[in-house]
Design goal:
mainly beta; 2 strands; about 25% strand; extended
Length: about 45
Amino acid sequence: MPTTVWIASDGSSHLVQIQIAPTKDTSVTLTMSDWGKQVTATKPV
């Protein structure tokens, strides 16, 4: 289920792309917050 979402609450836009493979009778909820907040991400091993 590839999904592309453009989010803009302040006139700018933020691209969010996800790909999820849900199983039968599964629902997906995605909550996003703290736009503009600094984050630290590391490469998976």
